[in-house]
Amino acid sequence: MLTVKKSKQNFIKLLALFTAIAIPWVIGGVYMYNSSNSGGHVPVKLVNFAIDTVPKVDHSKFKILQQKFDTPQEITEACLSCHNKTDQEVMRTSHWKWAKPYVKDNGDTILLGKKNIVNNFCIGTKSNERLCSSCHIGYGWKDMHAKFDDSRNIDCIVCHDQSGIYKKATGDYGFPAKEELVICGIASHPFDYDKVLKSIGKPERHNCGACHYVGGGGNNVKHGDLEMALNKTSREVDVHMGINSANMSCVECHKTERHNIKGNLYSIASADNNRVSCEECHTEAPHKNSIINQHTDRIACQTCHIPEFAKVNPTKMYWDWSTAGEFKPDGSMLMKKDSTGAMTYHTKKGSFIWGKNVKPEYIWSNGEARHYIMGDKIDPTKTVHLNSFKGEYSDKNSKIVPVKRFLGKQIYDSENNYMIIPHLFGKDTTSYWLNFDWNKAAKVGMEEVGLPYSGKFGFVSTQMDWPVNHMVAPRKESLTCTECHTRNGRLAELNDFYMPGRDYNNWLDKFGVIMILLSFAGVIVHATLRIIKK
Question: Which one, out of 20, 101, 276, 380, has a CA that is 20 to 30 A from the CA of 373?
């Protein structure tokens, strides 16, 4: 009887031991399961978000706007008769100047921006002002070197027209069409100023998109996350702009003070200032789950919440200028399209590769960027990085961000070993799109840039990273843990830090498992022997 009682006591002690060992594992498992499967709707924390639905004024009532206007500058004069200090605000902005201070690696500060930077789409504005200034918020910027400070040349309408009919003519220095025009295959039409001036209001998506949707020469060519489909879209494409969701306009995030629109694009802006962040509305801890909130210290919101871009229409991912200049046997321009209708070759521009529903690349960013400056020497045997984000794991101000990585092949001076901005557009005998002579186009373009041209050229591979900030997915379509915390996952290329579930050493893992098993067995054996001896 005593033996049975002792055996029962020993069993209870063993059961208590196993229970003590198992409880922490069970609690941890339940917690992790609830962390990754917190079902139900989690309310989003919002601050600093409000929509002003009441127009402050009705511009159609102003008599000064009811007269007949012959030129767009006359309209600007009428605007400034009331908004008599606004011109000074506008002409201080980067939308007007197309340049911002940039500190070079040697410490020198220069003005850098759209007016003088090089990219791997249409390459550069110098000598191509006639076409490029179609997206400037002014009229008649014909020379990027010249001072441009006549307030009459401010285009108020392009940002404030709500009639939907105002449009700058393609290839006429930012002026609206005075007659029917077709340039580069794009038709421009004259319109009724009276109808436009009765529809003046706060900028909407289509105002911003008139330029930002079509950068690089067509819809969604450049950004991948900004395109015409966003004018009227669903929450499945973008939760902020979906008409069945928040239906927000651009300026509700890109808040404006004295015409300075908040936001900087890393492809042309280097300093970490005047940028828009998700935290301005959503706070730094927007999730119910504390573990997910911990990720926001080193991971940008966009990384998880924009799993793909170019959701509706494809975006250009590669552009090879070296193949341009091929014609049909009859001498007409050669154009090829893929099964979706996307242009894959054009005599004027060369070869393209497009992508749809594209997964971003991921890089570290601390908010600052470097840029290629015209005249910088290159190694033509390597890919030229026209921009690069600063940041790394060891920099505590850096976060992982998603980007569109755009690759190209473009002209460079093969003797001076620096990039060339060619003269592409124009009615003269030296523009490439009229005469298809790279040598002439390079000579004129570099004269405008102010750098010598050796007379010899080649083509070099280039790369640019473009931040992905739009096309935010609904919550259920955001990235799951295993898309990153796994071998060969989305963050496989970011190998300067240890990530659970991704990083491992085969022998170390085996050793660790063996040690855990031995420790577990040792505890059980030791406890069992002590119980039996008692």
Answer: 276
What span, in angstroms and rounded, lies between the C-alpha atoms of 421 and 114?
Answer: 13
Phi, psi for residue 269 in degrees, rounded to 5: -115, 135
CA separation, residue 28 to residues 16, 25, 33, 183 (Å): 19, 5, 9, 66
Rounded Cα–Cα distance for residues 464 and 68 (Å): 46
Residues shown for the chain? 534
Backbone angles phi and psi of 403, in degrees to 5: -140, 155
pLDDT digits (tens, 9 = 90+) for 110-168: 999 999 999 999 999 999 999 999 999 999 999 887 889 999 999 999 999 999 999 99
Q: CA distances (Å), 37 to each of 41, 345, 473, in order?
A: 12, 47, 18
Residue found by looking up tokens 């992982």 in the block: 400
Q: What is the CA angle 367-468-45, rounded to 5? A: 80
pLDDT of residue 321: 98
CB 389 within 8 A of CB 437: no
- Proportion of the chain in helix, strand, coil states, percent, rounded to 5: 30, 15, 50
Q: 398: which DSSP letter?
A: -
Question: Please, what sign has the CA dihedral across residues 423, 427, 428, 433?
Answer: positive
**At residue 233, what is the residue type?**
T
Q: What is the distance of C-alpha 129 from the center of its chain?
A: 24
Q: Where are the alpha helices (DSSP H) in 184-341?
A: 193-197, 205-212, 279-282, 290-295, 301-305
Q: Which residues pair with 336 in a beta bridge?
A: 345
Q: At what angle do helices 2-36 and 506-533 cross, to 10 degrees?
A: 150
Per domain, the residue ranges of the chain are 2-37+504-533, 59-313+356-483
> Is-contact 236 226, C-beta < 8 A?
no
CA distance 9 to 378: 80
Q: Which residue has the tokens 């004259």?
A: 190
What gap in Å lies between CA 344 and CA 215, rounded to an integer? 18
> What is the pairing mode between strands 418-419 and 457-467?
unpaired
Instruction: Give me the residue label for tokens 């008769």.
Output: 81
Q: Which two tokens stand for residue 158?
A: 């392009």
SS3 of 208, please? helix
The residue behind tokens 């511009």 is 59
pLDDT tens-digit profile of 265-286? Answer: 766 667 778 889 999 999 989 9
Q: Are 184 and 170 in contact (CB under 8 A)?
A: yes
Query: Taking a C-beta distance cutoff of 8 angstroms, is the pair 166, 176 a contact?
Result: yes
Is residue 31 scored above 70 in pLDDT?
no
One DSSP character per residue, 72-103 reads HHHHHHHHHHHSTTHHHHHTTSHHHH--EEEE
As to burial, measured by CB atoms within 10 angstroms (0-12 exposed, 13-18 middle, 19+ buried), residue 139 is buried
